[in-house]
Amino acid sequence: MAIDRRREAAGGGPGRLPPAAEENGALPPGGDAAASAPLGGRAGPSSGGGGDIQPLPAPHAAGGPHPSLLLLDYDGSVLPFLGGLGGGYQKTLVLLTWIPALFIGFSQFSDSFLLDQPNFWCRGAGRDAEQAGVTGAGRWGGGDLANWTGPPPTPSSAAWGTAGPLGNGSGADGGDAPPLPSPPDKGDNASNCDCHAWDYGIRTGLVQNVVSKWDLVCDNAWKVHVAKFSLLVGLIFGYLITGCIADWFGRRPVLLLCVISILIFGLAVALSVNVTMFSTLRFFEGFCLAGVILTLYALRIELCPPGKRFMITMVASFVAMAGQFLMPGLAALCRDWQVLQALIICPFLLMLLYWSIFPESLRWLVATQQFESAKKLLLYFTQKNHVSPESDIKGVMPELEKELSRRPRKVCIVKVVGTRNLWKNIVVLCVNSLTGFGIHHCFARSMMGHEVKVPLLENFYADYYTAAGIALASCLAMCLAVGALGRRGGLLLFMILTALASLLQLGLLNLIGKYSQHPDSELQLKLAVGMSDSVKDKFSVTFSIVGMFASHAAGSLSVFFCAEITPTVIRCGGLGLVLASAGFGMLTAPIIELHNQKGYFLHHVIFACCTLICIICLLLLPESRDQNLPESIADGEHYTRQPLLPPRRGEQPLLLTNAELKDYSGLHDVAAAGDGLPDGATANGGRPM
Question: Where is this protein found (predicted)?
Fold first, then answer.
């Protein structure tokens, strides 16, 4: 065929970039076909199926309109020259990105302690009990509950749960004291809310938290939920805005500016005088925290060679989980919410030293053609790693010298709108992240909420450590699944598990409940007898655990996947989009709680439907395992879909590759075919009329 003849004549080299990629500014327009070729090849040996990215062509003359492809092939030339991750300085920088993950873990899970709704009762409840005929001195258990701040000896009812807007947290008797009255009904709860002062039973190890300090109960209980999603809204806006800024001004300035800001706003939160000030400052604290999380994530990815990226990222996740596990002990040590907030923020003071010890991302400098700064940083890296100039086999430094006169070319995330493949990949991962983190709350609510009563899960610490343990197991399983199946296969597996757990919980358990209530036949009667409510609860807890396990892995893997397939020039912007989508998913939890769980079932049904859509869309994603990171938007466009299973030996692909599609032209076919035809014959073998 003509396409095969052209490919043999050109040595398999790719053709011209599509107009959409040229208009995006990823590479300057013009030049020969080799200049617009994809830059990254597979890091490992190529398989029979081939990689998603075409091999790197030979570099052209540096004086042309395009930068040297040797420099833009960062994973293939620049990083090996610096020693890869084996360089001592790179290892130090990776370690410096791990340490703040512990502080980030403290901040992300602080709401569980600062804003936990405690059990509460009227301060004069003892006298009311005495008037109701309870014998004794009107003090339950021989003690004065007006001064009691610790947990009651044995909770009487709803020990796991927090008191709702009209809840009551009365305690039980101790020793030989007479028993307490039964939990009050709605009328008694309303009378409790007529009180002007309450006593609180805080379950998180603190003597006082935000709820007890400003009496955020009864009519003011809604302010607790506003304070909860103020941090999440700040994170969402922070991801979107700081991501764009980091792509334009660099990762290092955004990181240091956000560290300084989080110190200011975080310490100001501890000095809040009312809940309005607390919620407002928590918004700005979340905004700055998002900048720290996002820039550290991008720097960690850009420091690593292809084979080490996932491992380095997972270590940071485990460090953040260590902060989650240590948080209850930190709360018990501080005893006061203001001291706890200050202790969470103060470790960020250590990150001020990063101004002098942490450099800008060399990969970002090269990708945006800031070769003057890249040269200085490259020399600094070689000095730190004790790399001799003789080891520069590929000639990175001479090529860098030739490109110093180029002007920087920075790109904003909005450029992705004009692409053909890249925007679809980012949107699919955003939907996956939204679904994974959104449905996670549905499973957690089913396991720990009012629908299922399991004795083990009727305690704050049991709830907290159960969720943390499931997240830890999810990350461990994610390491195994990604290592065996790759990014796309692992994400598809966890999303299928999430969908199955959700559909079984919504459909099977409701069907069992329907049959148990209306046994119309002998079979249904046997089923109703064999399936008691306790068994249904155990099934529900099992499905909830599987759903929490799989949804956490799906959401986390979507974020990492997006960081790999998004080009370096817009990586922080793409990460900001997928992390903001995750924030929107988590934001549904306080919104549902604010409406007193109204619409909870519909909320779960909608996200269950989204999991099915995600499973279909995941097949459109490329596989990025062991591949070089894309540097420009043109490189990101060449991350195209690959079959889940490698093709058999000798099997011909049914679709043309990107290079063949770009090379195809009817005029070229006519010219190629016309060379071998006799005079007077047309290109298709016929003769003119």
Answer: Endomembrane system
Nearest residue to 173 (alpha-carbon basis) of 201, 142, 131: 142
Largest CA distance in the chain: 119
Q: What DSSP character marks residue 33?
A: G
Mean pLDDT of the chain: 74
DSSP assignment string, 395-452: -HHHHHHHTTTPPP----GGGGGG-SSHHHHHHHHHHHHHHHHHHHHHHHHHHHSTT-
For residue 462, give both structure tokens: 């049991």
CA distances from 520 to 236, 511, 536, 556, 657 (A): 51, 14, 20, 46, 60
User: What's 562-577 look like in SS3?
Assistant: HHHHCCHHHHHHHHHH
User: Do 120 and 167 form a contact (C-beta atoms < 8 A)?
Assistant: yes
Mean pLDDT of 520-540: 61
Return the higher-pLDDT residue of 448 and 93.
93
- The neighbouring-strand residues paired with 198 are 122
Residues 6+ apart with CB under 8 A from 14: 33, 36, 37, 38, 54, 57, 658, 659, 662, 663
Residue recorded with tokens 């960690």: 300
Tell me the C-alpha distance between 614 and 597, whole Å.
26
Structure token digits, residue 33: 């076909």
Cβ neighbors of 414 (< 8 A, separation 6 or more) are none
Distances, alpha carbon 601 to alpha carbons 266, 446, 540, in Å: 36, 10, 14
| Residue 35 near residue 21 (C-beta atoms within 8 A) | no
pLDDT one-digit tens code per residue, 178-217: 333 333 433 344 445 767 777 777 887 888 888 888 888 8
pLDDT at 381 over 80: yes
Q: Can you give the C-alpha Rg of the chain in angstroms?
A: 30
CA separation for the pair 382, 380 (Å, rounded): 6
Q: Strand pairing partners for 42?
A: 627
Rounded Cα distance, 465 and 149, in Å: 23
pLDDT above 70 for 330 = yes
Query: Other C-beta atoms within 10 Å of 427: how many?
Result: 16
Give the whole-angstrom CA distance, residue 53 versus residue 42: 7
Asked whether 567 and 632 are in contact (CB, 8 A), the reply is yes
Residue 66 · residue 27 · CB < 8 Å: yes
The helix/strand/coil state of 627 is: strand
Up-side HSE of residue 169: CA atoms within 13 Å toward CB? 29
Query: Which pair of tokens denotes residue 660?
Result: 């063949």
Least confidently predicted of 152-161, 412-421, 675-684: 152-161
Rounded Cα gap, residues 487 and 557, in angstroms: 8
SS3 content of the chain, % helix, strand, coil (to 5): 65, 0, 35
- pLDDT tens for 8-31 read 444 444 444 444 434 334 444 344
Per-residue DSSP letter, 677 = S
Q: How far apart are CA 196 and CA 207, in angstroms?
A: 20
**What whole-number distance in Å separates Cα of residue 310 and Cα of residue 293?**
17
Question: Contact, 29 vs 686, CB < 8 A?
Answer: no
Contact predicate 633/569, CB 8 Å: yes
Looking at residues 406-433, what average pLDDT do you find? 90
Are 212 and 124 in contact by the 8 Å Cβ rule? The answer is no
- Sign of the Cα torsion 434, 437, 438, 440 reads positive
